[in-house]
Amino acid sequence: MDQLKTGKFIAQQRKKQNLTQMQLAEKLNVTDRAVSKWETGKSMPDSSIMLELCNVLKISVTDLLNGEMLKRENQNKEIESTFIQMVKVKEQNDKLLLILEVVIGVLSVLVLLVPIIIGSLLTNIEDWQRIVICFSGFIPCVLGICFALKIEQVAGYYHCERCGHKYVPTFKQVNLAMHMGRTRYLKCPNCGKKSWQKKVISKE
Ligand SMILES: [Zn+2]
């Protein structure tokens, strides 16, 4: 730790915040002589006011002790935390999507079955009318199932237990694969082997 360097850094950052030594001293409840001593490297700020000083100067304690802004490291940390945030948001959304998938699945079955039941229960209608009613749920049901499959494809990942690879398959692969619930029999793009692969939300 270089006291002189830290001192110069404090002065530089204070000026950047448009503060005089007096104004900074007032904010920290110390004398302007104390501030002057820090800036000339004659003394270090007491650890009890170091945090507050860093707050006022908008720097980190590490920056203060190093006597310079560790830009690269800070940026990396920022990028990293933004990235972690994004991953969390995706996982949250994927969970909601998979719930939505179940709802769409149930509705798709209902939209198919209800008209069939109604069509067969009605007595005083023509045969062609009965057929139209019975089949009216067919297209909405197919659309619903397609939509649910699309969710199944993009939400989360499939996990190959043979090599540990986690990936998003193509829509076609998902469509053609045998499945039990959300576990599908898929070919892993990493190791090339076919196996029953579970759906997982997180890539970690
Ligand atoms: Zn694999």
Shape: elongated
The overall strand count is: 5
Main sheet properties: 5 strands, antiparallel
Binned strand content: 5-15%
**From N to C, what is the helix and strand string?**
HHHHHHHHEEHEEE
Name the helicity range: 55-70%
Number of helices: 9
The strands making up the biggest β-sheet line up spatially as 2-1-5-4-3
Bound molecules: zinc ion
Number of domains: 2
Uncertain stretches of 5 or more adjacent residues = none
The Rg value, from CA coordinates, equals 32 Å
**Average pLDDT score:** 90
Distance between the termini: 38 Å
From the helix content, strand content and strand pairing, which structural class follows? Answer: alpha+beta
Please outline what is shown here.
The chain is an alpha+beta fold and 204 residues long. The chain is built from 9 helices and 5 strands.
Task: Explain what you see.
The chain is α+β, with helices and mostly antiparallel strands and 204 residues long. It has two domains: 67 residues, lambda repressor-like DNA-binding domains (434 Repressor (Amino-terminal Domain), Orthogonal Bundle), CATH 1.10.260; 111 residues, no CATH class. It has a five-stranded antiparallel β-sheet with strand order 2-1-5-4-3, with no helix packed on it. Strand 1 and strand 2 form a beta hairpin. The structure holds zinc ion. Zinc ion binds next to loops.
